[in-house]
Amino acid sequence: MRTLEQEALQDSIAHALQFISHHHPSDFVRALRRAWEAETHAPARAALAQLLINSRLASEGRRPLCQDTGVVQVFLRVGMGLHFSRRDGQPLQGLQALVNQAVHQAYGDPTNPLRASMVQDPLGLRTNTGDNTPAVVFCEFTEGDELEVLVVAKGGGGDVKARFATLNPSDSVADWVLSQIPGMGAGWCPPGVIGVGIGGSPEQAMLMAKQALFTPIDIDELKARGASHAVEALRLDLHGRINQLGIGVQGLGGQHTVLDVKVAAAPCHAATIPVALVPNCAATRYVRFKLDSPQPKVFEPAPRALWAGIPEHFAAPEALRVDLDQLDPAQVRQWRTGQTLLLSGRVLTARDAAHKRLVDLIAAGLPLPVDLRGRAIYYVGPVEAVGAEAVGPAGPTTATRMDKFVDTLLAATGLLVMIGKAERGAAAIQAIKRHGAAYLAAVGGAAYLLSKAIVSARVVAFDDLGMEAIHEFQLQDFPVTVAVDSQGHTIHWFAAPAA
Length: 499
Description:
By secondary structure, this protein is of the alpha/beta class. The protein contains 14 helices and 19 strands. The protein folds into three domains: about 130 residues; about 130 residues, no CATH class; about 160 residues, Fe-S hydro-lyase, tartrate dehydratase beta-type, catalytic domain (fumarase), CATH 3.20.130.10. The strands form five sheets. A five-stranded mixed β-barrel has the order 14-15-16-17-19. A four-stranded mixed beta sheet has the order 6-2-7-12. The longest helix has 20 residues. It is globular and about 75 Å long.
């Protein structure tokens, strides 16, 4: 029987969470690079370049890849012969409590604070827990005395796009998966990996789909040798057909929506085929390790050669430079979908909670705390700044969550521009067209790179909302793509077009 101190496990999980906050898995970086080298569609290629630069900068700066630093999910395989002890002599903790303490420790690290996104009372006040606890913990007891740990920081944009169905035995799993992809939109920040779980029970299928994501990308090797069984054949089929849809990087079009498709299968009832689909985003973050010594696990970063040839700055010589402080409707009317802009000047931030307060004030006939006429709003909840940073990593959040507020704000305030990620719905596109506004897409998963273009930041309203408060950022060459222009044309072909 082997004995392991719980403190070593707790510290290892905390170290892992810090490490994955700023380090992509090496296979993911290599897959991004292959996609970047092969991509021919200009907006998608530019987005891939930003993701690779962000990956390099985050690794070097040890700051988060994405402002959504994830829901912590820990998968433990505990050997039945392993015995836990406590160095401090206190009673043993349950695994949930131990992992929660590791999350508290990691997310509150003053050298690299991570954003707390978890809320309690989900149907009531939805109060932020303040330290990103609780974690989601899965434990499997196995033979032997080893401890295997998989630590994941899973962004909300991927999990919110998860899908499940119970198919008939005669139905095509591939056709069902393919039918779901356009409806998932781009809020999961492609390119990423799609996990598919087939069989078992509903909850087992969902768990298999998620766990399948956390294995090395090997689709090119599979293509080279060919499928040897049905699961591998399905992977190849789905990988090719999904990329042929042309959704592309960030939904901007092109050839690379998925970098790999992972499939896991289990026995199931003769009358059913449970099928689950879970995507992993461009901020893929996980690490797997065995804890086989009394010391906490140390995680070594990949050699810098992994990013060889990747520049430190995003260059877009063809981009149109825009001064947000001199913005007017005539200028906005000149923009066209697919165009790259570099924004400088002042922008306000607002997410879900701030939007709700603004429209409630409008409905009550009360003054707003900020003047939105002729201004731009950026949908973002930044990470806390450290050192000389103006703001921590500050990438866009999914724009569709703000769709229901668009018409009210455009009509009542004179707001001119919105910045976020992914597509807009039909009603929002119609409102943008009706009011002569525009929607600009920033790259989801490039949060640290984007924060470098924010030269100052201050809270100007709703400071009680924390990261969801309204900030005013001063931008310098902040890269975006025109996603919906003032005529109602959208670059996201899978979104509802203007009538």
